[in-house]
Amino acid sequence: MDDDIREQELPGIGRHYSVPAEGGEVSVVIHHSGRRDLYLSDEAGRRPPSVATLSDNQARRLGAVLAGAYFQPTLANRIESVVGGLLIDWVTIGPDAPGAGRSIAELQVRRRTRMTIVAILRGDDVIVVPEPTEVLGTGDQVVVVGRPEDLEGFVRHVAG
Question: Pick from 54, 108, 118: which is nearest to 86 by CA?
Answer without folding.
Answer: 118
